[in-house]
Specification:
single chain; alpha+beta; 8-stranded antiparallel beta sheet; about 20% helix
């Protein structure tokens, strides 16, 4: 074996040793594993209760794979919003303490401003802010943890933020649509228009129905106090009724349309759906299709 070969082998050995030092970092203490806030899996949660001091309580329940709000509104919940709340369960904690040897008042935990319960068993109380790390103290049983603060602000938001913004819940099918100026009804597998108007094709019926099936509000808000003065059976304003397959009771909306906004009010749920103003015509009437314009023959020849 020549001296050059020996030198190359020695250099290769040195390189391998350096690579091992970089990869394995001998002598360095490994970082401790992150402590998760809970070991409860989000897939095992079927009930959530959020108690907010001076802001009311939100109750959510999972039914048939989708989340429903039970209070303060009995309506389908926004699954994505609830999923983001469930991430709290597995959030990494920055510190953990035994609260038995601490004063709960120091952390604003005597009467928490916010608490959340999962499955009527696991309860998390939110305290105040740790001044240095700007993280939030939370209590579970006798343990005190520090977690990212954004969960607190997420949970104290408007209760309407937890609602599905769709006018028609996913999986539901319209079988009759009563608008102020027309009615579409499914009879023996065929859609009929009343009053009859031959200026519109079956495609126009389909377009209108699709608009309703997939319509989403840009904002949901609690009913205004002046609207609550009118009982649901005697509403003021034009009425809209949507009948769904398998239900004899329609969804009832009261229409409020001004130059500034287009709102559909569900008095029975005390909620207002604020719609995009440019969607009003598409949701309230049939639209005629624009015919394809044929080029003028003489103009075409000139070209």
């Amino acid at each position: 074996m020549t001296s050059r070969t020996l030198l190359n082998l020695a250099l290769l050995l040195i390189v391998l040793i350096l690579v091992a030092l970089v990869m394995f970092e001998p002598g360095k203490t490994p970082e401790p594993e992150a402590i998760l806030l809970t070991d409860l899996k989000d897939s095992d949660v079927s009930k959530i209760r959020i108690v907010r001091k001076d802001r009311g309580t939100i109750e959510l329940e999972k039914k048939s794979g989708h989340w429903q709000m039970l209070a303060p509104y009995a309506l389908p919940a926004n699954d994505y919003k609830v999923t983001s709340v469930l991430k709290l369960l597995a959030t990494e904690t920055a510190a953990r303490y035994n609260i038995s040897v601490l004063d709960p008042a120091r952390f604003d935990l005597l009467t928490p401003a916010l608490s959340i319960s999962f499955n009527d068993s696991l309860k998390i109380d939110f305290g105040n802010i740790e001044p240095l790390q700007k993280q939030r103290y939370v209590r579970i049983d006798r343990q005190l943890y520090l977690i990212p603060d954004y969960y607190y602000y997420q949970l104290i938001g408007n209760s309407t933020d937890y609602l599905d913004h769709a006018l028609i819940a996913k999986g539901e099918k319209i079988v009759r649509l009563e608008l102020p100026d027309l009615t579409l009804a499914l009879k023996e597998g065929k859609w009929t228009l009343s009053p009859e108007n031959k200026d519109y094709s079956a495609d126009a019926y389909t377009d209108l129905l699709n608009e309703w099936q997939h319509a989403h509000a840009v904002e949901l808000r609690a009913m205004k106090s002046e609207d609550k003065k009118n009982p649901p059976n005697k509403p003021l304003g034009k009425q809209i009724r949507v009948f769904l397959q398998g239900s004899e009771t329609p969804i009832r909306y009261t229409l409020r349309r001004t130059e500034d906004e287009f709102v559909l009010i569900r008095a029975d749920k005390n909620i207002e759906y604020v719609m995009a103003a440019d969607k009003a015509d598409a949701l309230l009437g049939l639209q005629k299709s624009t015919p394809d314009v044929e080029p003028d023959s003489e103009s075409a020849q000139d070209k």
